[in-house]
Amino acid sequence: MADKIPCNINVGLKEFNLMVGREEEEYVRKAAKLINERMDFVREKVGLSESYELLAFVALDYAIDNLKFDNKHSDLQKTVMTKISEMDTLVDSILK
After folding, report:
1. Cα–Cα distance, 77 to 48 (Å, whole number)
2. Can you tell me the distance from the alpha carbon of 87 to that of 75, in angstroms, rounded to the nearest whole number?
3. How far apart are CA 95 and CA 70, in angstroms?
4. How do the residues of the chain divide into helix, strand and coil, expressed in percent and rounded to 5?
5. Pair 41, 47: CB distance under 8 Å
6. What is the full DSSP assignment across 51-79?
7. Angle, CA of 71, 44 and 57, to the nearest 5°
8. Is the Cβ–Cβ distance between 12 and 39 less than 8 Å?
9. Cβ atoms within 10 Å of 52's Cβ, excluding its own
10. Is residue 36 within 8 Å of 10, Cβ to Cβ?
11. Phi first, then psi: what are they for 42, rounded to 5°?
C-alpha cells in the first residue's frame, strides 16, 4: 500500500484535509486549482455567484469535457485497431 501524506486544498469556499498517495498529490492540487479557476471564469462570464451553483456548473462542464474525451479516445482506439488489423493482413499476405 502506498504511503499517504496530508494534502490540504481549497475548492470554492471549502477547505479539504485529505490523505493522498505521494504520486497523487500533484494531481489533487492541480485539479483543485483548475476547479477554482473555472469557478472564477464562470463567476465572471456567466454571472453565477452562489458557490453551489458555481460548483454544479463546473462539475457539469468537466463531465461534458470528460465524455467528449472518452468519445474521441474510443474513436482513436478503434482507428488504431483497424490499422493494426490492416497491417497484420498485409504482412500475412507478404509472408505467404
Report:
1. 38
2. 18
3. 37
4. 70, 15, 10
5. no
6. HHHHHHHHHHHHHHHHHHHHHHHHHHHHH
7. 40
8. yes
9. 10
10. yes
11. -65, -40
Cell numbers found for residue 95: 509472408
Q: What is the pTM of this model?
A: 0.74
- The phi, psi pair for 34, rounded to 5°, reads -60, -45
Tens-digit pLDDT profile for residues 12-39 = 889 999 999 999 999 999 999 999 999 9
Do 35 and 10 touch, CB atoms closer than 8 A?
no
Question: Considering only CA atoms, which of 59, 60, 57 is closest in space to residue 48?
Answer: 57
Residue reference for cell 472564477: 40
Euclidean distance between CA atoms 11 and 74, whole angstroms: 31
Main-chain phi, psi angles of 10, to 5 degrees: -115, 130
Written as one letter, the residue type at 86 is: E
Tell me the pLDDT tens digit for each residue of 37-70: 999 999 999 888 888 899 999 999 999 999 999 9
